[in-house]
Amino acid sequence: MAKTYDYIITGSGPAGCVLAHRLTEDPDVTVLLLEAGGPDRHPYIHMPAGFAKLTGGRSNWGYSTTPQAALGDRDFWYPQGKVLGGGSSINAQIYTRGNALDYDAWADEAGCEGWAYKDVLPYFKRAEDNDRFSDAFHGNGGPLGVSEPVNPLPISKVFLRAAQQAGLPFNPDFNGAVQEGCGYYQMTQRNAKRCSAAVGYLRPVLSRPNLTVKTGVLVTKVLVENGRAIGVEHAEGSTVSSTRCEREVLVTSGAIGSPKLLLLSGIGPAEHLREVGIDPVHVLPGVGENLQDHMDVYVVNELIGNHSYDHVAKPHHTLWAGIQYVVLRRGPVASNLIDAGGFWYADDQARSPDIQFHFVLGSGLEHGLEKLKNDGVTLNSAFLRPRSRGWVRLASADANAAPLINPNYWGDPYDRDMSIRGFKLTREIMGQEAFKPYIRAERLPGPDVKSEADIAAYATQHAKTDYHPVGTCKMGVDDLAVVDPDLRVHGLEGLRVCDSSVMPLLVSSNTNAPTTMVAEKAADHIRGIVPQAAHDSAAQYQRVSP
Questions:
Q1: Taking Cα atoms as reference points, which of 204, 195, 214, 219 lies closest to residue 89?
Q2: Closest Cα to residue 189, out of 150, 134, 137, 243?
Q3: What number of other Cβ atoms are within 10 A of residue 527's Cβ?
Q4: How is 221-247 classified by DSSP, letter by letter?
Q5: What 8-state DSSP symbol labels residue 538?
Q6: Which residues of 310-337 are buried (b: 16+ CB within 10 A; e: fewer)?
Q7: Distance (Å, whole) CA 120 – CA 106
Q8: For the CA atoms of 262, 265, 266, 267, what is the dihedral angle to 10 degrees?
Q9: CA 473/CA 483 separation, integer angstroms
Q10: Which residues contact 471 (CB under 8 A, 6 or more apart)?
């Protein structure tokens, strides 16, 4: 007879790892964690600079979007983690939480009571083991290592001077009292190695006898009987079987995988389910709707001299970088390739920063981007609060088929306008006096691209995802809400969704840290633990006017 568990978790991304760790703290609770990908053994995963090798096909699902109507019907490469640790094992390790007002909007605008900033701050702190800060905003001793860049390149300091010359104040902590400004990012790293959710949360508890982890197992369906989730169907190679649970199925397959799994289970909009040959089990119109993502528009400059990491690709430099890392835990391999960045305003009436910059220490470091012959640097700009809404749908009833993913970039003209303003800000920063001794020329898009129409045409050809999809099983109380503020699927018992897909509104930053927070808080909801919110005085951001 197949073993029955108390909880079944459907993916080992940041949320799944957090839940596996927290729920098995009770030795009387049994947990099964299922992951479609493999173990996180590849060395690229654990070397910070390995990020550049992981945005291609390795350790991810290899998805692409549907043609984007507002961007010349171009499909976008859309990587999603398929490995222990999920996105936290393949991302750029940047630790940012967003703005306090993002979470207040979850509570006040989206009807998610208990998810205001004062409510979520304790969970950010509980997760964190910060190597620099210990204050009202930061925690120490948590599972997730958070650290400063090990050896930031001098050109990153040049960027910070240039950003200040352009009017952005220096900010030592984007996750503290002020989000605005430029500064060094903190990273999900510990001892110059990536601290993914698998490393920080899962690995320390793998020996717990009440935790079972299986890789290479694709969850194909949530099994529902009489209005209650009672287990899952899953495939291991060509073998399809099912496993039951006594308490709850916890869906943690990510902003793309979670709606896909619900739809495959017959949970979602009835018309779409019937179109692909699936009988509706429970009608929820919002499953797969409300997709939001950040889109990057970037400028690439060629440098005078070896000031970035492009030249490290040459064999003798690569050899020396490897020796540095193995012996000293320093050098290019210890870098996530993005030391610094910032937050500022495209719309000067915005309630908080609406543009984020990533200063990338090279050209062509991500999948599909062209590398310059000489050293270069890339400055990404992403509009943080898009009004456009997309969707995730099934292409067929085959669980192995890729879903249809439509972020609907620039579907709202406001997003286009703000993206163009953000791009102009990147040029303004790169054109400051601090950069003049270092920059040979702008190579992308090039000085001939000047008008808004020209910039839009350039973005149509070159823009990319910032890897931050959320919202497709949104939390709330309206007609499109999939889960309630306890993350329970509306109208079903024994089923919760506990990952980035529940975010009703996209946060104004990278999404790894917020996803970890969601799962930390979800663990307490599941266990019936409700800690006190943070003291109000420690939960307020200050606004710096642009």
A1: 195
A2: 150
A3: 13
A4: EEEEETTEEEEEEEEETTEEEEEEEEE
A5: G
A6: bbbeeeebeeebeebbeeeeebbbbbbb
A7: 11
A8: -30
A9: 7
A10: 255, 290, 291, 292, 389, 500, 501, 503, 504, 505, 506
Distance CA 196, CA 143 (A): 10
The dihedral through the CA atoms of 333, 95, 190, 16 has a sign that is negative
Task: State which amino acid sits at residue 144.
Answer: L
Torsion sign, CA atoms 422, 427, 433, 435:
positive
Question: Which member of 468, 490, 525, 535 is catalytic?
Answer: 468
Strands 211-215 and 31-35: what pairing?
parallel
Between CA 468 and CA 14 the distance in angstroms is 13
Distance CA 143, CA 200 (A): 5
| Beta pairing partners, 249 | 8, 495
Which residue segments constitute the domains of the chain, with CATH numbers given? 1-52+78-147+187-287+469-540 (3.50.50.60), 150-184+295-383+410-462 (3.30.410.40)
Tell me if residue 234 is catalytic: no
Binned average pLDDT, 10 residues per bin, the chain of 546 residues:
90 98 98 97 91 82 97 96 96 97 97 96 97 95 96 96 98 97 98 97 98 98 98 95 98 98 98 98 98 98 95 77 79 91 97 98 84 95 98 98 98 98 98 98 96 97 96 97 98 98 98 98 93 54 53
168, two tokens:
């952005």
**Count of CA atoms in the C-beta half-sphere (13 A) of 362:** 21
